[in-house]
Specification:
The protein is mainly alpha-helical. The protein contains 14 helices and no strands. The model has no long low-confidence stretch (mean pLDDT about 90).
Length: about 450
């Protein structure tokens, strides 16, 4: 933590993100969105953006506000913008979801809420990019370590994703009549989805894992050639996806860039797997903690999704079952990794807040004493079982089974959130060590 301080609003980002995750799962159980209705229905767009923006993006923003200063050993620049950014993102997401409900006919409002979403969401993400970008730039690009370069790529990706999302919002709201003749869905939607999911969420998650795994498992963190190959091949794959439209306009086909992007993406995942095996095999902490053990489920989901993609392509059923791939990546890899690392990050930040100032002067508990791993490990196991069952249900087009599987994941998610709240409230710490003299119990998600 040298050169950095606790970000005041990280816990608020985490709380909002977890609320959206639970709400989205509850709506899916109720039959709202896909697979009960079509994948292009407005109800499905509500669920998709609750997960991608409400859960995963808010989680990523909150984590990066704390993580980037650690990467560059510099204080967060313009930290006061973290709260306005969160406010803009929440207001923009509320407007976006309201607009989708308006399109579905569920509600009727006379305000151009989609156009407002096209203003608030890019504004919120721009503030995040500004704060994190300035912090990264403080050490100049030539000094950026490998994890920071992944984060930089992720920030560039969210800029593109937010800009395209804003254009969709303005077109759907009817506030951009000049764009009505452009088929944005065909031209820009694949870029919006791929760069958002693969660039912003994918590259950034990989970069974070390159630092958190060595940190928490005490394994070598020197940069390896394989890590740089992951960055460059993954970035090149995303670039080819972006160039798909211009290439089609010139040549009349998209086969070449898509095939090359797929090959490069596969190479990136292979080298990423090589590094993951290296981290786990070369750890100095022989008995790894639950956050690192449960992350194995997330990484398994990532590589299971790769195998599933190859199997569906071989059988010619990829388009028919693409939703199962997206679900497994979103809930198995990204959400599983997010929940597993939150199980360590929340107690770690809580410990720093409560016991860091008195460390070495008064008896303090360990970070592990803030949680009960023997209890929480069952919830992580249940979560991954639910994700696998949900993926199988989507492949089999079994809607009822999918809702049952989502009930399992919601139960596990809620239990994990309860564990995080207990850790934040210091419930698991013995009474003798719970509160040092002169310290008050930390607030649940607001700054102390």
């Amino acid at each position: 933590m040298n050169g950095s301080a606790l970000s005041r609003w990280t816990m608020a980002y985490f709380a909002a993100a977890l609320a959206f995750l639970i709400a989205a799962q509850a709506l899916m159980i109720a039959g709202f969105g896909f697979p009960t209705v079509g994948v292009e229905a407005s109800e499905t767009l509500v669920i998709v953006h609750m997960i991608t923006i409400g859960w995963l993006s808010l989680l990523m923003c909150g984590a990066l506000l704390q993580f980037v200063p650690v990467l560059v050993a510099q204080p967060l620049r313009d930290e006061s913008l973290a709260l306005p950014a969160l406010t803009c993102l929440l207001m923009g997401l509320f407007c976006l979801l309201t607009g989708f409900l308006q399109l579905s006919g569920a509600i009727d409002v006379n305000v151009p809420v989609l156009a407002l979403a096209g203003l608030f969401l890019p504004a919120g993400f721009s503030l995040i990019v500004w704060v994190l970008g300035r912090t990264l730039w403080s050490v100049r690009p030539s000094s950026l370590q490998l994890p920071a370069r992944f984060v930089a790529g992720g920030l560039a990706s969210i800029a593109v994703t937010a800009a395209l999302g804003a254009s969709f919002a303005f077109v759907l709201s009817g506030q951009a009549p000049g764009w009505a003749d452009f088929d944005l869905r065909t031209l820009a939607l694949p870029i919006h989805v791929t760069v958002g999911l693969g660039g912003w969420l994918g590259l950034t998650s990989i970069g974070v894992s390159y630092r958190l795994l060595p940190m928490f498992m005490l394994c070598p963190d020197s940069e390896r050639t394989s890590g740089h190959l992951v960055l460059w091949t993954g970035g090149a794959a995303l670039g080819l996806i972006v160039l798909e439209g211009p290439f089609e306009a010139v040549s009349g086909t998209t086969a070449l860039p898509i095939v090359l992007a797929g090959i490069l993406g596969l190479v990136a995942t292979v080298f990423y797997g090589v590094d993951l095996v290296f981290f786990y095999r070369n750890r100095r902490r022989r008995k790894i903690e639950l956050n690192s053990r449960s992350a194995l489920g997330a990484f398994s989901a990532l590589y299971l999704s790769v195998l599933l993609v190859l199997a569906l392509l071989a059988t010619g059923t990829f388009a028919e079952h693409a939703s199962a791939i997206v679900y497994l990546v979103s809930f198995g890899w990204l959400t599983g990794l997010g929940l597993s690392q939150l199980y360590k990050i929340v107690p770690f930040l809580t410990w720093l807040e409560c016991y860091g100032p008195v460390m070495g002067r008064k008896p303090t508990p360990r970070v592990q004493d803030l949680v009960v791993e023997t209890r929480a490990k069952y919830w992580f196991s249940l979560y991954y079982v639910g994700v696998l069952a949900g993926t199988g249900a989507l492949l089999a087009d079994a809607t009822v089974l999918f809702r049952i599987a989502t009930t399992v994941t919601l139960t596990a998610t809620s239990a994990i959130v309860v564990e995080l709240v207990l850790a934040r409230c210091l419930v698991n710490v013995s009474a003798a060590l719970r509160m040092p003299d002169g310290k008050s119990r930390p607030r649940l998600f607001l700054p102390s």
